[in-house]
Amino acid sequence: MTTASIIMSALTLASTAGDLPEWGGVRIPDTLVGNPFVEEWDTPYQTPPFSEIELSDYEPAFDFAIAVNRAEIDTIVNNTEPATFENTIVAMEQAGELLNRVSGVFFVLNGSCTSDEMQKIALNVTPKLTALSNDIALNPKLFERVKSVYDNRKKLNLDKEDMQLLEETYKGFARQGAALPEADKELYRQYTSELSQLTLEFGQNALAATNAFSLNITDEAKVAELPDFVKEGMAAEAKARGEQGWTLTLHAPSYVPFMTYSTQRDIKEKLYRAYNSRGVGGDNDNMENIRRIAELRLKIANVLGYKCYADYVLEDRMAESTKTVNNFLDELLDATYDYALKDVKAITEYAHSIGFEGELMPWDWAYYNNKYKEEKYALNDEQIKPYLKLENVKEAVFMLANKLYGITFTEAEGIDIYHPEVTVYEVKDATGELLAVLYLDFFPRESKNQGAWMTEFRGTKIVKGKEQRPLVSLVMNFTKPTETTPSLLTFDELTTFLHEFGHGLHGILAQGKYESLNGTSVKRDFVELPSQIMENWATEKEYLDLWAKHYQTGEAMPAELVEKIIAAKNYLAAYLNVRQLSFGMLDMAYHTITSPIEGDILSFELKALEPTKVMPVVDGMALSPAFTHVFSGGYATGYYGYKWAEVLAADAFSYFDAEGIFNQKVASKFRHEVLEKGGHEHPMTLYKNFRGHKPKTKALIEQMNLE
Predict the structure, then answer these.
(1) Residues with catalytic roles
(2) Beta carbons of 269 and 361 less than 8 angstroms apart
(3) Terminal Cα-to-Cα distance of the chain (whole angstroms)
(4) Which of 213, 324, 321 lies closest to 271, judged by CA?
(5) Which of 99, 121, 156, 355 has the most CB atoms lying inside 10 A of its own CB?
(6) What is the helix, strand, coil percentage profile of the chain, to 5?
(7) Alpha-carbon gap, residue 690 to 483, rounded angstroms
(8) Do 527 and 401 sit in the same domain of this protein?
(9) What pLDDT, on the 0 to 100 scale, is given for residue 660?
(10) Domain residues for 450?
(11) What pLDDT, on the 0 to 100 scale, is given for residue 3?
(12) Rounded to whole angstroms, how far apart are CA atoms 197 and 187?
């Protein structure tokens, strides 16, 4: 059956369908009977039955779910009763349940366990989803009903949460072109449809370019100097590929350790050039995608009445304006740039002092800054890793959540998983009530995107008095165990775990009636506060002393090693700050253009990054073609938010620091005013409710302890 005939069948309402199966009042076509997405999930907590879902189930399920959502919207539009908060705003919020079910599974797995076929499905369904979104946002009768409720909002006696939903719903329509003339609505449709395709293609190209490179080494002399964990990881990669010796890839657990510990400068240069030219030319070229994505975003902003895309986006952020963001980035750059140059000079002088000759290049940086760190602090990952066995770290992270918020984690039985490496936990409150189901997916594979992230198969909401608790997923790319050694994390991986777990807590602890306002559904520049504040515990002796034990001997991490970790926490703070600012400034450069980019993308990037340049520039290298956060990951005009949230986190953690890092009163306040509230109120209001004042930029600068 064709897509068109499925949709036509789906639109036969149950009132004419007798006893035939239906979903939300819409008849399920015969071709979908047996499809897991349209059946009741008789599973623990209605978790997805992954083992029952076939790739062939997705696209017909998407088509039917889209048809159901259209029918739900038609019911709202054609309601002969006057528009009310319940029959219009709440009805819209509750529509799309089946589509959320299908999307929740498909897009989580497309990022963490994809395949060529899944990527083709994504390319097929994305324009349909964009068309649906546009048809809803640009429906004049629907907007008329929404506007009617909004115009009478002061008479409705709504509580804060209801009022926020109403305001966000109205704003969402206005910001998606609902009030535009018909000709401009059509332009908006065209631009957003093309943009959705290009951003998807960008991400697929970046992943393919990452996976396309590998380097096999058979000369043992070239790896002899490496720590055992690096060699073992490379050997395991080679074995998995059916190769001899040791194999390198561009995935972080392979790329970063080799760049850090190897003296093989020719290999490191090759790796660096491969990593920093992903998406530059070849089969996975992203250069023209960048140009067109930036142009389409500008066109969308213009048709909506904004000078540039940043003006459009930032109007609906905690920062509220392009000027505020640019001033913020400039303030941090001015405060730290000279110190960053001092950091680079110190590493360069050190490299020369131990025999390096010539100009220190980017592929030399990791090795010499690590050597300098070892000498200055007598500290390296080899010393720390034995105390960071992944299983122990996981229990320590759970313990921290328990000490702060009283919640518990128990490995679940009978819950289906989408990959053998995934583990699942029931998360319960101190009362014993279920808060969430948590999926943990730790290790890299070719089917998984790089990086680390939190997402949800399902969010929190209340429908007809019944609460739906979230299904939260944390996805990482940590060092794999080998045949002889368990997974031992680097210190950076420990902070990554804490970071993503903070996002997880934002979802796990969510409370509220409306899924679109709960958990991480907050302003983009506020969403990183719960994650970044968690990183602070990684350098707290009181916390490390509770759990950091040697994986072989069981001995506690020596006090002197803990002290070294704490002493080194601000190592290269200025350099790292400027590096992060460079990403934010590049993002802003692409989205403050007022005319399409002319000339080549490499030149555009170089100009944007010039104010943050502290290292030599290598011809032909570029960040942009693999900058997935900005060009395919939802962070367009939002990358500054990491630094913005660092300020929030530094200021917020100073409260814990003053009262005690496990202080129940402070933790309870953070839980109730930030984590549980999601997007129920403006983030500045939530932050002030917790902290008692607006965030202070100086808190971050002071935390860096620049010298």
Answers:
(1) 500
(2) yes
(3) 69
(4) 213
(5) 99
(6) 60, 5, 35
(7) 47
(8) yes
(9) 97
(10) 385-567+641-704
(11) 34
(12) 16
Q: Rounded to whole angstroms, how far apart are CA atoms 572 and 366?
A: 12
Question: Residue 90 maps to which CATH number?
Answer: 1.10.1370.40
pLDDT tens track for 259-301? 999 999 999 999 999 999 999 999 999 999 999 999 999 999 9
- Together in a domain, 554 and 584: no
Query: In the 8-state DSSP scheme, what is residue 361?
Result: P
Take residue 388 and report the two structure tokens written for it: 């960071």
What pTM value is reported for the model?
Answer: 0.84
Element (H, E) at 72: helix 55-77
In a domain, 581, yes or no: yes
Reading the block at residue 310, the tokens are: 């940043």
- Contact present, 536 and 668 (Cβ < 8 Å): no
- Pick the closest to residue 537 from 657, 655, 643, 666 (CA basis): 657
pLDDT for the residue numbered 705: 84
Residue of 570, 397, 408 whose CA lies nearest to 498: 397
> Residue 6: what pLDDT?
33
**If you count DSSP H runs as helices and E runs as strands, how many of each does the chain have, helices first?**
28, 11
* 223 & 132 share domain: no
φ/ψ bin of 465: left (φ > 0), alpha (ψ from -120 to 50), beta (otherwise): left
Is residue 207 situated within a structural domain? no
Domain count, the chain: 4
User: How far is C-alpha 525 from the geometric centre of its chain's CA atoms?
Assistant: 12
Residue-level pLDDT at 8: 34
Task: Identify whether the C-beta of residue 372 lies closer than 8 Å to the C-beta of residue 350.
Answer: yes
Say yes or no: 165 and 74 in one domain.
yes
User: Partners of 26 in the beta sheet?
Assistant: 13, 23
What residues contact residue 320 under an 8 Å CB cut-off, 6+ apart? Answer: 314
Token match 């702060």: residue?
Answer: 404
Phi, psi of 512 (to 5 degrees): 155, 165
Give every residue of the chain whose pLDDT is below 50, as ranges.
1-19
CB 483 within 8 A of CB 236: yes
Same structural domain for residues 582 and 521?
Answer: no
In whole angstroms, what is the distance from residue 95 CA to residue 463 CA? 11
Identify whether residues 547 and 583 lie together within a single domain.
no
- The pLDDT, as a whole number, for residue 68 is 96
Measure CA 287 to chain center. Answer: 23
Q: Tell me how far the alpha carbon of residue 537 is from its chain's centroid.
A: 21
